[in-house]
């Protein structure tokens, strides 16, 4: 093989490798989180979720309403973790809504009812849907 052809082959291989690396970075790894208010008493549910980098803000979610957000895992930074605080007039609870490296969910759905929050265990590869956290009742004066 001539020197010119060898340089062309080497250049082509380098371009292919760079293209593959760039595609791996650009391909979307979007995640979707939904927290649905299933409380039958038609009470508004206050939901506030955040990560170390993003504060999604607090929102009053009406009955059958959904607190929804989408995001992507960070390729070259610290792992993404979202935690949420939920509040009713007489109850509070906090939970981790997403941890990067869990069971590989793309869409995570949580239902909140009178007993607490139901959803998947992020490290349960059998994909069960159970009570994750009960309400912590507070005494009102």
From TrEMBL:
The chain crosses the membrane at residues 7-27. Its main location: secreted. GO terms for cellular component: extracellular region. Keywords: Membrane, Secreted, Self-incompatibility, Signal, Transmembrane, Transmembrane helix. It is found in: Secreted. Pfam families: Self-incomp_S1. One of its GO terms (biological process) is rejection of self pollen. Belongs to the plant self-incompatibility (S1) protein family. This is S-protein homolog. It comes from Linum trigynum.
């Amino acid at each position: 093989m001539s020197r010119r052809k060898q340089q062309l082959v080497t250049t082509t291989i380098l371009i292919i490798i760079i293209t593959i690396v760039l595609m791996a970075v650009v391909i979307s790894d979007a995640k979707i989180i939904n927290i649905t208010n299933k409380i039958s008493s038609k009470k508004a549910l206050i939901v506030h979720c955040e990560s170390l980098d993003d504060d999604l803000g607090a929102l009053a979610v009406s009955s059958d309403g959904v607190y929804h957000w989408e995001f992507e895992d960070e390729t070259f930074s610290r792992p993404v973790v979202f935690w949420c605080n939920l509040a009713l007039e007489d109850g509070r609870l906090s939970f981790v809504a997403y941890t990067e490296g869990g069971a590989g969910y793309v869409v995570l759905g949580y239902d909140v009812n009178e007993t607490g929050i139901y959803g998947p265990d992020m490290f349960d590869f059998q994909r069960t849907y159970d009570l994750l956290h009960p309400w912590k009742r507070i005494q009102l004066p």
